[in-house]
Structures are given as structure tokens and as C-alpha cells.
Design a protein that fits this description.
Elements lengths: L10 E4 L7 H7 L4 E5 L4 H4 L2 H11 L3 E5 L8 H14 L3 E6 L1 H13 L23 E4 L11 E6 L4 E6 L7 E4 L9 H19 L7 H23 L4 H15 L19 H12 L5 H16 L4 H12 L8 H21 L16 H12 L2 E2 L5 E2 H10 L10 H4 L1
Parallel strand pairs: 1-8, 2-3, 2-4, 4-5, 5-8
Antiparallel strand pairs: 6-7, 9-10
Keywords: Oxidoreductase
InterPro entries: ADH_Fe/GldA, ADH_Fe_C, BDH-like
GO molecular function, one term: methylglyoxal reductase (NADPH) (acetol producing) activity
């Protein structure tokens, strides 16, 4: 187990109807004016926005609305939010939504205290050291933004999607009511579960060997998600399964699944190769849902790199799927690892996720543009489990155009 620093300061208020206590909690902490950040209408249609506003009104906390945040939030929206914060004297940022809304709110929270442009934090010109306080109401379990030190923003002008990290913008309080997620479309639910599993896998395959206490937490989270997802897809109002997914999604990305696995004691475990590869896809085409892109890219990455450390993949196969090689021959090891990767991808597909790049609407000829932006973001080499060159990245992308269950022929690509 490597040295590590674990920090998770967020207060979680979990359960039925918890959003109705937001105003009281905000007033108790001395906040006077909140910026309510949300997306394109579902929180209005569901009545959730009205419940949050009523709670704030009852506690005497003024509020300003900032609506219309899209999936893969764009930096221009962040700049507009910063303008409102400064103009209205906001002292609390209150996103109601999933990862995109919360990430936009995070960027507003630290960007409002920065003298330069907020994109400075996403291109390496500035580091986050301070942010306005954040309360959040989670509506889409997926990104884990309700407790993470991560923030990802797109810049359409340069076709970039980049992240920054900082403990300063971890939400102060997260309100998590599984009932809010009953109305989520099946596709969104499935994409969210895929993202959660990817967050765990990025840490599992960090280039560090076994850390059994952390590995057991990680494998348990994946198994829980794989058990709960079919339940909610069959019965969207299964409260206990929704609660399992919501809580597991937070634990998947608040760093507990990476303790002792990072190469830097104060850093995050893993090289985040699959996320890096996927971000370029959803930056190239912002209609691509992040989880759907990961469902395609992550198994392709696994198939490309597993030989770098077969023992780590064998442990994953055993702990998650109860798969073991029949003997210690190279062929048996490959069969066991391949079977585990196939099982993982089959789970994604059974939830309704895509399997190939073509299903995402991408073409082989798009890869030149994708590789160009990947190189601008990551440099010549990136990754921890196996450092990837741009040639490696291209090979992974190209392999993901083929269904691994079919022969890699021109017909299969088509």
C-alpha cells in the first residue's frame, strides 16, 4: 500500500425529501444569496426546482437562477455564470443536476474568484486554491461530482474537453434523494452506471499492485452496481436499488476506491487513460454521452494493455466475476482475462450501451482530428498502467470500430 492522503469533506444528506431542508441548512451556515444552477428543464417539470426555491424562501435565503446548462458543459456558460455571481453578490453556488451541471457550478465557484479567464485552470495556467461554497442537489448519479475534486469543461472553439482538480471546490453539502432519480431515462441510468464503473477501474488499473482493503471496496462497488442496474431498468421506482446506485456513484469517485494506489501521495490513483480517450470523442461530437463513450473505449483499452500486468487483470476477473484461469499457462491466462473483459462489455451492452465506435456515430476518418486534440491535451505520452503514445491511442480507437465478438474483417468494420 502506497502512502496516501485521503480527504472527503462533503457533508451528505441522504434520503427521501432531503432537498426540502436546503434553505434551513444554508441559513444556518450564514449564506444570504444563492445562485441556482440547472439544466434545460427537467428540474422545472418535476417540481424539484420549486421545492428548492420554497425551501430557500422559507429560510430567508435569496436566490438567482442560472438555467440552460448542457451536457458536456461549455466554457461560455461558465463565463456567464461568473458574470452573474459578481453582479448579484452571490455567496453560495447551488447546482441542481448531474455531473455536467455540478461541474459547471464548480467552475463558476472558483472562476469567480480568479482575476483572469476561467479557462486558465483548464490549460495549466492556474491552479485552484479557493472557491465559493457549493451545496448541490444530485439528480443524475454518474459523474460523482457531488463529492469529487474533479471538474471537466468543454471549449467548443478549440474542440477541447479538459479537467482540473482541487479540493477547494468539493461541495460543502450534497443532498441526495434517490426518489428524484425515478424518472431518469433508461439510457441515462445506464450511462451513469458505466461512468461509475469506469471511475473505479481507472483506479484499479493504476500501475500499482494489489491493495487488498481498497481492492475489496472497489470490487464490492462494481458488483453492487452490476446487481442494482438491472433492477432499476426493470423497475425504475425500486428505491433501494436507486439508493445503492446513488451512493455507490459517490463512493466511486470520492477517492476511497483509490487509497494506497496512487504513485503520488497527494494525487489521484490511476492514469485515467479511458477517460482521456473518451473526452476527445465527446469533445469532437458533444452529442456523445460520456458514459456511452466509455462503454466503447474502456473495454478496447483493456484488450490493448492487459499484457502489461496480467496479474492485475486476473485479480479483477476473480474479484468481480469469479473467473479464474484453469491453469497457469499463457493461453489459460489470456482466456480468463478476455472472458472478464467480455463479461464487463456484455453488461454494458445489456444495459443498452453501445459496443462500437460506429454506434457512437464516429467514422475512421474522424480519428485524425480526434488524435490531434488528444495530443494537444495529453502530449506525446500519457497513462500509468501502460504509457500510451498517439500511435497506441489510434490503435485503441481503431480496434473499437470492430465488434470483438466478430472477426476483424472489413465486413465487421462496416
Amino acid at each position: 500500500m502506497n502512502n496516501f492522503t485521503y480527504y472527503s469533506p462533503t457533508e451528505f444528506v441522504f434520503g427521501r425529501g432531503v432537498e426540502e431542508g436546503i434553505g434551513k441548512r444554508a441559513a444556518e451556515k450564514g449564506f444570504q444569496r444563492a445562485l441556482i444552477v440547472y439544466g434545460k428543464g427537467s428540474v422545472v417539470r418535476s417540481g424539484l426546482l420549486d421545492r428548492v426555491k420554497a425551501s430557500l424562501d422559507a429560510a430567508g435565503v435569496a436566490h438567482v437562477e442560472f438555467a440552460g446548462i448542457r451536457p458536456n458543459p461549455e466554457v461560455e456558460s461558465v463565463r456567464e455564470g461568473i458574470r452573474i455571481v459578481r453582479e448579484k453578490g452571490i455567496d453560495l453556488i447551488l447546482p441542481i443536476g448531474g455531473g455536467s451541471v455540478i461541474d459547471c457550478a464548480k467552475a463558476v465557484a472558483f472562476g469567480a474568484l480568479h482575476d483572469g479567464d476561467v479557462w486558465d485552470f483548464f490549460c495549466g495556467k492556474a491552479q485552484v486554491t479557493q472557491a465559493l461554497p457549493i451545496f448541490c442537489v444530485l439528480t443524475i448519479p454518474a459523474a460523482g461530482s457531488e463529492a469529487s475534486s474533479s471538474c471537466v469543461i468543454s471549449n467548443d472553439e478549440i474542440h477541447a474537453k479538459r479537467g482540473t482538480n482541487g479540493d477547494a471546490f468539493r461541495p460543502m453539502v450534497a443532498f441526495m434523494n434517490p426518489e428524484i432519480t425515478f424518472s431518469l431515462p433508461a439510457y441515462q441510468t445506464a450511462a451513469g452506471v458505466t461512468d461509475m464503473i469506469a471511475h473505479i477501474c481507472e483506479r484499479w488499473f493504476s500501475g500499482v499492485g494489489a491493495v487488498r482493503v481498497t481492492d475489496n471496496i472497489a470490487a464490492g462497488l462494481i458488483r453492487t452496481l452490476m446487481a442494482a442496474a438491472p433492477c432499476v431498468l426493470d423497475n425504475p421506482e425500486d428505491y433501494d436499488a436507486r439508493a445503492d446506485i446513488m451512493w455507490a456513484g459517490m463512493l466511486a469517485h470520492n477517492d476511497i476506491a483509490g487509497c494506497g494506489r496512487a504513485l503520488n501521495p497527494t494525487g489521484r490513483a490511476g492514469g485515467w487513460e479511458s477517460h482521456g480517450l473518451e473526452h476527445e470523442l465527446s469533445a469532437f461530437d458533444t452529442s456523445i454521452t460520456h458514459g456511452a463513450g466509455l462503454a466503447v473505449v474502456m473495454p478496447a483499452w483493456m484488450r490493448y494493455v492487459w499484457r502489461e500486468d496480467p496479474s492485475r487483470f486476473l485479480q479483477f476477473a476473480l474479484d468481480v466475476f469469479d473467473i479464474e484461469p484453469i491453469d497457469d499457462t499463457d493461453e489459460a491466462v489470456e482466456d480468463a482475462v478476455t472472458a472478464a473483459i467480455d463479461e464487463l462489455q456484455a453488461f454494458f451492452v445489456d444495459m443498452g450501451m453501445p459496443k462500437t465506435m460506429g454506434e457512437l456515430g464516429l467514422r475512421v476518418e474522424d480519428l485524425d482530428a480526434v488524435i490531434e486534440t488528444l495530443h494537444a491535451t495529453k502530449g506525446d505520452v500519457f497513462g500509468a498502467f501502460k504509457p500510451l503514445t498517439m500511435d497506441d491511442a489510434r490503435a485503441i480507437y481503431e480496434s473499437a470500430f470492430n465488434d470483438p465478438a466478430l472477426p476483424c474483417t472489413e465486413d465487421a468494420e462496416e
